[in-house]
Amino acid sequence: MSDAMPDRDHGAGGPSMDDIHVLDFSLRRGSFERSVRIRSRRRVIALVGESGAGKTSLLYAVAGLLRPQRGRIEIAGRCLFDSERGIDVPAHRRRIGYVFQDARLFPHLNVRRNLLYGLHGEARHAPRFAFEAVVELLGIAPLLERDIAGLSGGESQRVALGRALLSQPQILLLDEPLSMLDMNRRDELLPYLQRVRDEIALPMIYVSHYPEEVRRIADEVHTIGA
Ligand SMILES: Nc1ncnc2c1ncn2[C@@H]1O[C@H](COP(=O)(O)OP(=O)(O)OP(=O)(O)O)[C@@H](O)[C@H]1O
């Protein structure tokens, strides 16, 4: 089932004929099996569904961490997997920024070093998302010299989002980034997620349990397992 939201103004980086996502595949994890058929021209889509429906598994397949049994995955027109054509782009070449439920920051590095970790390897050369711009976008400047252990859940998620952007992704995958936060912290973080959505023209796939959260972020909602 899918449910298109009203159009949002995405500016110059908005949807075009090329912005077509195709998630048309079947996967298996132990005894769990899930097939999905999603085609979308919306840049930001959400996957919702009950616990165990397979939302995280679908993100893993997009990220190249789980290989589907068959099918095709295209994000913004870029083919990542096609069993018929023998295409399976390795995970490290998919240019994915992944934000998990828990921020998964390096506890022995401070905020600045966690962010700079994202900006390593090829990402350092002519980055599309520069360090200062990402720090400004996410309001991280006051946190830069702080230790990870002292950050609130919302601050940690902003740093995790910043690190993901600095890795210069072509796709942003968000796996319930607000789920570990209480209501107040969720309300604090949501505007930053909206800024990322509006100011950075990246395709985003957003997994969530919360209809309210999804309505505020995604252009289109797909229910998994219905
Ligand atoms: N490593 C694994 N090996 C075998 N089965 C697994 C593995 N990881 C998850 N599963 C099973 O795959 C199914 C889908 O799990 P998944 O985490 O993708 O669901 P989800 O919709 O993201 O759930 P939640 O909302 O609770 O995070 C579940 O039945 C789960 O038990």
Explain what this protein looks like in three dimensions.
- The protein is an alpha/beta fold and 226 residues long.
- It has one domain: Rossmann fold.
- It has helices at residues 55-63, 111-118, 131-137, 153-166, 183-199, 211-217; strands spanning 2-4, 21-29, 32-40, 44-48, 70-75, 78-82, 87-88, 96-99, 171-175, 204-208, 220-223.
- The strands form 2 sheets. It has a 6-stranded mixed beta sheet with strand order 1-11-4-10-9-8, sandwiched between helices. A 5-stranded antiparallel beta sheet has the order 3-2-5-6-7, with helices on one face.
- A hairpin with a 4-residue loop joins strand 6 (78-82) and strand 7.
- Residues 4-16 have low confidence and may be disordered.
- Adenosine-5'-triphosphate is lined by residues 29-30, 32, 49, 51-57.
- InterPro entries: AAA+_ATPase, ABC_transporter-like_ATP-bd, ABC_transporter-like_CS, Molybdenum_import_ModC, P-loop_NTPase.
- Keywords: ATP-binding, Nucleotide-binding.
- One of its GO terms (molecular function) is ATP binding.
- Residues 15-226 form the ABC transporter domain.
- This is ABC transporter family protein.
Question: What is this structure, in a nutshell?
Answer:
It contains 6 helices and 11 strands.
Sequence-ordered SSE layout with sheet pairings:
Blueprint: E1 2-4, E2 21-29, E3 32-40, E4 44-48, H1 55-63, E5 70-75, E6 78-82, E7 87-88, E8 96-99, H2 111-118, H3 131-137, H4 153-166, E9 171-175, H5 183-199, E10 204-208, H6 211-217, E11 220-223
Parallel strand pairs: 4-10, 4-11, 8-9, 9-10
Antiparallel strand pairs: 1-11, 2-3, 2-5, 5-6, 6-7
Helix pairs in contact: 2-4, 4-5
